[in-house]
Amino acid sequence: MPERVGKPIKKDYLQECVESLRTRGWWFSRKEWTEEAFDIATDPTWNDFADHWNHLFRDEYMRDGGTYRYRRYSAFEFDAADGSFRLLPHEPYEQSKSVNKLNGGFPRHFEPLELTFVEHPTLEKILTNFGRIFSSTTGHRHWNVKLHPYRIIAREGVSGEPAPEGLHQDGVDFIVSYMIGRVNVIGGLSTVTDVRKQPIGEVEMDRPNDFFVCNDRNTYHDVSSVVIKEPKKPFAYRDVLVIAFEKI
Ligand SMILES: [Fe+2]
Predict the structure, then answer these.
(1) Residue 175 Cα, ligand 1 centroid: separation in angstroms?
(2) Whole-structure pTM value
(3) Which residues surround ligand 1, an ion (CB under 5 A)?
(4) Cα 218 to Cα 92: distance, rounded to the nearest angstrom
(5) Domain count, the chain
(6) CATH number, residue 49
(7) What are the recorded GO MF terms, alphabetically (predicted)?
(8) Which domain covers residue 242, as residue numbers?
């Protein structure tokens, strides 16, 4: 049976997260725990942060012909010594074909993150905390950090695929899926397996500031389709911030 991890946070919450990443290879944080540990509240500032998901662009590279994914992309460097993030010059995003069988093997040009997003205090809290967590987990200081805000939409009779490549690794060290919001969709179950592809966990993130993180070197992950709940309503989507940390 997949294991469900996580406990109510206290002061040692981040240490529990670090321990779970070391021993189990993954961690799930509920909204309340994240908000306390990261000092984040779903207030007007947070709503301003989440509004950036209304300014994404359709991913035109989907080799499955899908038109359900909207995104932007930028990369940073993180130095744990002073906790600083530095935005890198904008470049195309590229994964090898061996890592991403669906869309890997060629450069993909995406719009960069908006400056108001890059400089947003909520983003700074999120990135700084994950930087601390992964540096504590590994003892490593320098990281390349790739940010992918995604909106996956569902239409009547057409599901949206948060992980169109199926069960996969992303070829990095750690992968975070940070929930921004869900509107009028069902599905989107995240699963994690060990390297032999045996299930070790599953979670359904359904509230803002829920997050799911896994060690991408010793686990695989997948996310199930999202389908529209009420076809008569005008919108159906799932907004997530995916953050990839890779040692440099
Ligand atoms: Fe992934």
Answers:
(1) 7
(2) 0.93
(3) 170
(4) 27
(5) 1
(6) 2.60.120.620
(7) dioxygenase activity
(8) 12-247
